[in-house]
Design goal:
Shape: globular
Largest sheet: 9 strands, mixed
Order of helices and strands: HEEEEEEEEHHEEEEEHE
Helix content: 10-25%
Low-confidence stretches: 1-25
Strand content: 35-45%
Number of helices: 4
Radius of gyration: 23 Å
Number of strands: 14
């Protein structure tokens, strides 16, 4: 019996040593090696999971039923604790997140091995890229068009396409309180304003990029912030002259929405190691 206990003790020590060795190895950064990383965008509404066709009430007192939530993520940068930045190649750095098409993941390849503590990315398409012309962007333009994220080429991209129906908090005399109206919010740049924005997020856990290891950065996107963020935008106040639909595709409200979008994303957690792809 004593021999059995001794064997179990030796085995336990061996497993503990192996575990500690693996943890220590994960801190080693081999020079001139590369790894991959994955961003997973988890769309929600004010703390709840976004489910298309479901209704959510905001602090403006309006109840929104969301039928579409698509947006463009671009120009990804990974940042180390000392401020060193790795800028993902621009030609490969335009992506679409679409709730209706179940597109939630961005996969980045051949990132220099290192420990990254922040990420930066754009919401929309930057003016520099847009001015390169249609021929340069044709593949992504076609992809964006498939997901309702373009206007005509002369007017460019929709950075956010947010659509559904809403019930106002208070009805006008000519409206029934429970009556629903459509809403379409198509955020993008225009001749008056550049509404492209960059978002910088601190990571709660260092993302370790290594050869054979791919961190997964889980980002929560709060669609509620679009009209119920720093700036409060009442959809009922944006009804068309016929009083049937609220459409926001230009004007001062797009600038306000661009400001709101700066707080639309938060990092929930980071998975490190091999086989960390989000399931």
């Amino acid at each position: 019996m004593k021999n059995i206990y001794k064997m179990m003790a030796v085995l336990a020590i061996g497993l503990l040593y192996a575990a500690c060795t693996n943890d220590d190895d994960s801190t080693i950064i081999e020079e001139n090696t590369f790894g991959n990383a994955e961003f997973y965008f988890d769309n929600g509404v004010n703390g709840d999971k976004l489910i298309l066709g479901s209704s959510y009430k905001n602090s403006n007192g309006e109840t929104l039923t969301i039928n579409r939530f698509n947006y463009i993520i671009s120009n990804v940068v990974l940042i180390k604790a000392d401020g060193t930045e790795y800028v993902y190649p621009k030609a490969k750095s335009y992506f679409i997140i679409s709730e209706e098409a179940d597109l939630h993941t961005i996969s980045l390849k051949d990132i220099p091995a290192g420990d990254y503590t922040k990420v930066k990315f754009g919401l929309g398409v930057d003016n520099q890229r847009y001015l390169e012309g249609e021929a340069v962007q044709q593949e992504f333009w076609n992809y964006a068009a498939q997901h309702n994220l373009t206007w005509t080429w002369s007017t460019g991209y929709r950075f956010i396409n947010f659509e559904g129906t809403f019930t106002p908090s208070q009805a006008n005399k000519s409206q029934k309180l429970a009556e629903q109206f459509g809403f379409q919010i198509h955020q993008g740049s225009n001749s008056a304003t550049d509404n492209y924005r960059e978002i910088v997020l601190n990571l709660p856990t260092t993302a370790r990029v290594r050869k054979g290891e791919s961190p997964n950065i889980h980002i929560v996107t709060d669609a509620n912030k679009i009209v119920d963020g720093t700036n409060k935008i009442i959809l009922k106040d944006n009804l068309n002259p016929a009083g049937t639909n609220a459409t926001i595709m230009g004007g001062e409200n797009l600038i306000k929405i661009a400001e709101n979008s700066l707080n639309m994303f938060t990092v929930d957690h980071v998975h490190n190691g091999s086989g960390t792809q989000h399931k």
